[in-house]
Design goal:
Elements (H helix, E strand, L loop, with lengths): L1 H30 L7 H16 L14 H23 L4 H21 L1 H4 L19 H28 L1 H11 L1 H6 L4 H27 L9 H14 L4 H25 L5 H4 L1 H17 L14
Helix pairs in contact: 1-6, 1-9, 1-10, 1-11, 2-3, 2-4, 2-9, 3-9, 7-9, 10-11, 10-13, 11-13
Length: about 300
């Protein structure tokens, strides 16, 4: 029973980290209509910045400043937000398909830098000894996982409430207006590029925070953690939950992660060991089938974005 509770806490912690990433994507796509397929790149920037700043000194690479975790997380948000703002200024004049190609290219560049800049990122060996919250409780897995769950849940709740407030604010209404009818919004004196860069940067900052939280939760990061599969997972989570809905982003993250983990468990339990590497593709198949069913039965996702009524 204790092991089951411990695993449930671990599962929910991982799902909520994905929920953080999906909330950032929902701000960019669901609220603003910006097609970002470089999610993994912004998550990686946050993870590496926080890891470099908070890990102990390491003669093999630059960094190791041993700063407190909150400073590492704040720096991760600022760095990822800055990268997103630069990408936004340079590319948001492009149409959605060209923007998608550009953001995907950015993610590939970030992953290649992480893989080859060994003196900064540890290269293919990654960065270890990342400080974990409540590390002194690691000998008691249940308490350790529950404590980590509490921290990640609190961060996710604060981000959720902040994004809900922003979505209902005049700033959020301008973003929705630009998404629905850009010409009408511009005719009212709103700068489409200015607001979109802000939304893209803020969404990138949330993704960077998620990357930092994940890095400190796991305690180790490497370039293979930030492959395009991560972007595919997060987009699926948003589409399943409901694009434009923050509640849907959280629900979709938990549901899709449950299917991903469940299919992996099924493969491990019922597929012969020598065939498991090949059968791992069933995870992608399971997610793809679920995505097709959602698009057929509920094209707007499980939780549609609420549209306020006039008057």
């Amino acid at each position: 029973m204790m092991e089951l509770l411990s695993y449930a806490a671990f599962f929910l912690t991982t799902a909520l980290v994905f929920a953080l990433i999906t909330l950032g994507l929902n701000l960019q796509w669901g609220l603003t209509g910006l097609f970002n397929v470089g999610v993994a790149g912004f998550v990686a920037v946050g993870a590496y910045v926080s890891a470099i700043l908070t890990t102990p000194d390491d003669a093999a690479r630059i960094g190791g400043f041993a700063l407190p975790l909150p400073l590492g997380w704040l720096a991760a948000m600022l760095a990822a937000g800055l990268v997103a703002a630069i990408v936004g200024v340079a590319t948001l004049r492009l149409k959605s398909d060209y923007l998608a190609i550009t953001t995907f290219g950015v993610a590939v560049v970030v992953q290649l830098v992480a893989l080859n800049a060994q003196g900064l990122t540890g290269g293919p060996f990654g960065i270890g000894f990342i400080p974990r919250p409540f590390a002194t409780l690691a000998e008691t897995p249940l308490i350790f996982n529950l404590a980590n769950l509490a921290v990640v849940a609190l961060v996710t709740l604060l981000v959720y409430l902040a994004l809900e407030h922003l979505a209902k604010s005049p700033w959020g209404r301008v973003l929705k207006a630009l998404r629905e009818d850009e010409r009408a919004a511009i005719s009212l004196g709103k700068s489409a590029r200015f607001y979109r860069v802000q939304a893209f940067a803020l969404g990138g900052a949330v993704m960077g925070l998620a990357g930092a939280v994940q890095a400190h939760f796991i305690g180790f990061i490497a370039p293979e953690n930030y492959l395009p599969t991560l972007t595919f997972q997060v987009w699926t989570m948003l589409i399943v939950g409901g694009s434009g809905s923050n509640r849907g982003a959280v629900l979709g993250s938990i549901l899709v992660w449950a299917i991903w983990v469940g299919s992996g468990t099924f493969v491990a339990a019922f597929v012969p060991t020598d065939q498991q590497a090949r059968a791992a593709a069933l995870q992608i198949v399971a997610i793809g089938v679920m995505l097709c069913l959602i698009l057929l039965l509920r094209p707007s996702g499980l939780l549609r974005a609420r549209v306020p009524r006039e008057g």
